[in-house]
Each structure stands twice: as structure tokens, then as C-alpha cells.
């Protein structure tokens, strides 16, 4: 099949064999990171060039595969190429908006909620998103995808903490992107967690299906199956990401018995309209990924140009609910800065009461009476 990625490869990587192109390790080793290489493909604007070369800038990195997506989609391009606005920090913005650092109970292990922990296993991603909540951690060093001995020692401390805390029944393995690591390293993490009897559920947070779809080899999926129940929280942004390659990866994930839910960040001039989000959610359902969360963009330093007012977010979700399958409507939520947790955002449908009837407004704005007898 000739896909956009195939055409892109012919144009910009003509000497690379198809075998290499479809090899996730080749994609990782050939991430596009320099201003010169990005310019060769994207013809950078003066603003993008200035942002890329600014001192201390959050690094840029894109797999050649995902560059093919960003090349054909101006919206996806915005999510991976920097602009000078990233240098402007507004009041309320911070490098650790979710307040994870104060809740670290072991290196890389955040324990905030009673029965679950967030386990930051790596600081590496194959592609860096400009609005990354963990940009204080990820991509800051030119760390290899193989974890160092120091990093592995941190994992052992995290396992030890979880072992000693029987209340932890759910572990979210995240980073960075854990699926950028070798199968053996991922297997070590999952086996160590599975050896702890009270860990019931393991989730892996990843963007790999859309930025590195060739990562889903039979060997990786066979290894993950050993550790079920394992769930994926897949970071998806725009319908253009659901290419034939990404769709194939998602179907393989589902066939391996891994339930996958999507997490989407609402981003200005990227996906902040009902049509775009509806198309994304429909495409996700077709490849058996359940739309799960739609998040407000966290107030990470320099993210103002991505943030959408909550009022607009509510209007967008109201244009989905009732107008498409309930399965296609993600839960809209904000993660409260400083560790306040997630709060679900929804338009209040309860208008008032008339005796034994509750007055509700339906998706079309029509006032409805619902029998509701108060004791
Ligand atoms: S994939 Fe996630 S962790 Fe990696 S850069 Fe994007 S938002 Fe950050």
C-alpha cells in the first residue's frame, strides 16, 4: 500500500531501505533533531528557527515516520516544532504544574492517590511534544533509550516502595515513553511489578502507536501478554495521526488483548473544534481504541499559545454529547495544578425542580421534566 509515509520516505529518505524504515530502532536512531535537518523537511519559518536555536530550549525530536505525519498536517506540525512563545512564562505557569516532585516517594515514583502510583521509568521519548507536562524531565539530556545502571537502581527503589505499600493496586508506567525501551527492560519492569501480589492492574502511558507504530512487533506484544491485565493509555492528538500504519498498530494492540484508552490534550489551533475531535474519536473507535480523557492543557511554562479557555472546551464537548455515540465522547477534565487531582468538567444539565420533577436540559437545549421523588 502506498501511504503518505511511503511517499514522504521516497522524497526525503530515498536511500533508506524499506526494511530499515520499518525498523523501530532505525527510526529511533535517526530522529530528526537539528535545525538544519528540520529545515530540510519542513522549510522552517524564521520564528521556528529562532525558537529551535534559543539557549535552554526544550529540545525538538521527531521520528522520521512522525515527520511524515507532521509534513502533511499543519496542526500536527504545530505540536512538534517550537515557536518563540514557548519562552514566555505567564503567571500560574510552572515547570511542574501537577506538583509531582513533592509527591515523589522514590526516584521517579509519584504516590498521590490512595491506591495507585505513577512510575516514571524513563526520560526519553521518540518524539517530543511542545506542550509536554514533563518537559522539566524528558529530553533534557541526550539520554539513550537504554536505561543506565543508575536508572535501573531507581527502579529497584520504586519496586521496593510498592512492595511495602499493600494499598497500591494500580501502577501507571509512564515517563517519557516506556515503549521506547528494549523489550527486555520493559519485561523486567512488568515482571517485577507482577511479582508484587497486591499490584492488580498495570497501565502503560505511551504515544508510540502514533509516533513509532513499527514498535509493535510480535515479540513485544507476546511479552506484554504474559503480564495481563495490562492496559494502554495512548496519547492521541489529531485525526491525521491515525494513518494506516498507526491504525494497524492499534489493531495489533487490541488483538493482543490490551485494552487501550485515548488521552487527548485540548490544544488551540490543533484540535479545538468539535469537527476535528469528533473525527479523531470516530477514527479511534474504528481501530478499537476507546476515547477516554480530553484534558485541558496543563499550565506548563510557555504553553499559553496552546491553551483553550474552559468555556470553549465545554462548548466543544456539548457539540459531541448527544450528537454521536456515547463511546465517542471522552471525559473532559482538568488536572488541578499543585496536585489537586483531576476534576471532570461538564455543563450542568440540572436546571431546577418542579415538585416531584427535576428540570433537566437535554443535548438540544430542550427543557425536560424527569420524575424524581425525594424521600
Ligand atoms: S509523548 Fe508524552 S512524555 Fe513524551 S514528550 Fe509527548 S507529552 Fe511528553
Give a short summary of the structure.
This protein is an alpha/beta fold. 33% of the residues lie in helices and 18% in strands.
Percent of residues in helical segments?
A: 25-40%
Bound molecules: iron/sulfur cluster
Taken together, the total number of domains comes to 3
Radius of gyration, taken over Cα atoms and rounded to an integer in Å: 22 Å
CATH class of the largest domain: Alpha Beta
Poorly predicted sequence stretches spanning 5 or more consecutive residues: none
Question: What class would the helix/strand composition place it in?
Answer: alpha/beta
The run of helices and strands is HHHHHHHEEEHEHEHHEHEHEHEEEEE
What does the main sheet amount to? 10 strands, mixed
N-C termini distance = 64 Å
Estimate the mean pLDDT confidence.
94
Helical stretch tally: 14
Number of strands: 13
Shape: globular
CATH superfamily assignment of the largest domain? Aldolase class I
Architecture of the largest domain, according to CATH?
Answer: Alpha-Beta Barrel
Describe the strand arrangement of the main beta sheet, using strand numbers.
Answer: 1-2-3-4-5-6-7-8-9-10
Query: Per CATH, what is the topology of the largest domain?
Result: TIM Barrel
Query: How much β-strand is present in the residues?
Result: 15-25%
How is this structure best described in words?
- Helices cover 33% and strands 18% of the residues.
- The protein folds into three domains: 4-87, no CATH class; 101-344, Aldolase class I (TIM Barrel, Alpha-Beta Barrel); 346-375, no CATH class.
- The chain has a ten-stranded mixed β-sheet with strand order 1-2-3-4-5-6-7-8-9-10. Strands 11-12-13 form a three-stranded antiparallel β-sheet, with no helix packed on it.
- Helix 9 runs parallel beside helix 11 (218-225).
- The longest helix has 15 residues, at 149-163.
- The termini are far apart.
- It has helices at 4-12, 18-21, 24-29, 35-42, 46-52, 64-72, 74-80, 149-163, 183-194, 208-211, 218-225, 244-255, 274-286, 310-318, and strands at residues 104-106, 109-113, 116-120, 170-174, 201-206, 230-235, 260-266, 290-296, 331-336, 341-344, 350-354, 357-361, 367-371.
- The protein has 14 helices and 13 strands.
- The structure holds iron/sulfur cluster (SF4).
- The site of iron/sulfur cluster has 11 residues, from loops.
Amino acid at each position: 500500500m502506498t501511504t503518505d509515509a511511503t511517499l514522504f520516505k521516497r522524497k526525503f529518505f530515498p536511500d533508506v531501505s524499506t526494511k530499515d524504515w520499518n525498523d523501530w530502532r532505525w527510526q529511533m536512531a535517526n530522529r530528526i533533531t537539528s535545525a538544519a535537518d528540520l529545515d530540510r523537511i519542513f522549510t522552517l519559518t524564521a520564528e521556528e528557527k529562532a525558537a529551535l536555536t534559543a539557549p535552554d530550549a526544550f529540545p525538538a525530536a521527531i521520528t522520521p515516520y512522525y515527520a511524515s505525519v507532521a509534513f502533511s498536517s499543519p496542526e500536527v506540525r504545530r505540536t512538534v516544532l517550537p515557536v518563540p512563545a514557548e519562552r514566555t512564562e505567564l503567571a500560574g505557569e510552572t515547570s511542574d504544574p501537577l506538583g509531582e516532585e513533592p509527591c515523589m516517594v522514590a526516584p521517579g515514583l509519584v504516590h498521590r492517590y490512595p491506591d495507585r502510583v505513577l512510575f516514571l521509568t524513563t526520560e526519553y521519548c521518540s518524539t517530543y511534544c511542545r506542550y509536554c507536562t514533563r518537559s522539566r524531565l524528558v529530553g533534557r539530556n541526550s539520554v539513550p533509550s537504554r536505561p543506565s545502571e543508575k536508572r535501573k537502581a531507581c527502579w529497584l527503589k520504586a519496586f521496593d516502595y510498592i512492595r511495602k505499600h499493600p494499598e497500591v493496586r494500580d501502577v501507571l508506567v509512564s515517563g517519557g515513553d516506556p515503549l521506547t525501551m528494549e523489550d527486555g527492560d520493559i519485561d523486567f519492569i512488568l515482571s517485577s511489578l507482577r511479582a508484587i501480589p497486591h499490584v492488580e492492574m498495570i497501565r502503560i502511558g505511551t504515544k508510540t502507536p502514533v509516533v513509532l507504530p513499527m514498535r509493535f512487533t510480535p515479540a513485544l506484544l507476546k511479552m506484554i501478554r504474559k503480564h495481563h491485565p495490562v492496559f494502554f493509555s495512548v496519547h492521541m492528538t489529531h485525526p491525521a495521526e491515525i494513518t494506516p500504519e498507526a491504525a494497524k498498530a492499534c489493531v495489533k494492540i487490541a488483538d493482543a488483548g490490551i485494552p487501550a484508552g485515548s488521552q487527548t490534550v485540548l490544544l488551540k489551533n490543533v484540535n479545538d473544534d468539535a469537527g476535528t475531535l469528533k473525527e479523531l474519536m470516530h477514527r479511534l473507535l474504528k481501530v478499537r481504541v476507546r476515547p477516554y480523557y480530553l484534558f485541558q492543557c496543563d499550565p506548563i511554562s510557555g504553553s499559553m499559545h496552546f491553551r483553550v479557555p474552559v468555556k470553549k472546551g465545554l462548548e466543544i464537548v456539548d457539540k459531541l454529547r448527544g450528537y454521536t455515540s456515547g463511546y465517542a465522547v471522552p471525559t473532559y477534565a482538568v488536572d488541578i495544578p499543585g496536585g489537586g487531582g483531576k476534576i471532570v468538567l461538564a455543563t450542568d444539565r440540572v436546571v431546577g425542580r418542579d415538585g416531584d420533577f427535576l428540570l433537566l436540559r437535554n443535548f438540544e437545549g430542550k427543557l425536560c421534566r424527569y420524575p424524581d421523588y425525594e424521600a
